[in-house]
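BUG-307 | component: ligand-complex export | severity: low

The export step for uridine 5'-triphosphate jobs runs without errors, but we want the raw record kept on the ticket for reference. Input record follows.
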Amino acid sequence: MINRITKAVIPAAGLGTRFLPATKAMPKEMLPVVDKPAIQYVVEEAVTAGLHDVLMITGRNKNSLENHFDRLPELEALLEAKGDAGRLAKVNASTDLADMHYVRQGDPRGLGHAILRAKMHVGDEPFAVLLGDDIIDPRDPLLGRMLDEQVKRGATIVALLEVDPSQISLYGAAAVEMTDDPDVVRITGLVEKPAVEDAPSNLAIIGRYVLRPEVFGILENTAPGKGNEIQLTDALQTMAVTPEETGGVYGVIFRGRRYDTGDRLDYIKAIVQIAVDRADLGPDLRPWLREFAAGLEDGPVETSPLD
Ligand code: UTP
């Protein structure tokens, strides 16, 4: 199906407190995952799904994000003079990727507040939101499917992941009804970071959304919620219970590989999982990793002073 959505919004203005002190002077979205910053995988995903118009919501320390997607003539000239075409192509890949736009959030008052900053740029059309620290493995495409569902159902679409019930309080949780498609559910309610016993299901919202523009008016009237932040989940809850006015909310259940690079353990797993499958690194990394893992099994646990 041909989708008519062309704009992607990537919020990248959070404080990244889980990654301090690394994120004291740089955004967590710039942390390298192998040899590319996390944010580049996210922009690549948007472009692969046909969204070439990318608006990034930035905050303090925004310069490195903007610089990464801009030209660097001195470096280009140097690599050209050296005849290093391979590295030159890598440097230019992020520059030529998309039609990039930036807006600052000012105070990071929550994901909903960040998305409100996109109102002028987006206008009155549906748009995608991709969280800048959430990587979806390109071998398991998700966004294209969500865009198709948006066109088909005229609704707002979120991505859902089945998580272990004990983990649901880290996410927004969805109450759902089945549809005739096993991968798509109708969302009847949403709760941000519920206590395990209050969660309506173990279906967690992950960082991909295709939103109808009505979300802006709703966010403007959404009071700060959990953590005193303006929560996108609260606006989605309003949309879920007002299908006549807003088209309602549906979830596409994602069963592929996803890496939350804003979480330290997931970040480490992301690097290992991506590197072992790369042609340039995998052949050396795999045998080393096997040997390392075997050593873990017999050896005593020694706490490292390098923390
Ligand atoms: P997170 O809750 O993971 O980001 O938001 P955070 O607050 O930076 O993380 P911690 O918990 O302090 O470590 C998910 C996404 O929304 C963006 C973040 O940059 C991230 O991509 N975000 C969050 C904003 O753009 N603005 C905000 O006010 C909050």
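Assignee comment: Attached the raw record above. The two ends are 50 Å apart (CA to CA).
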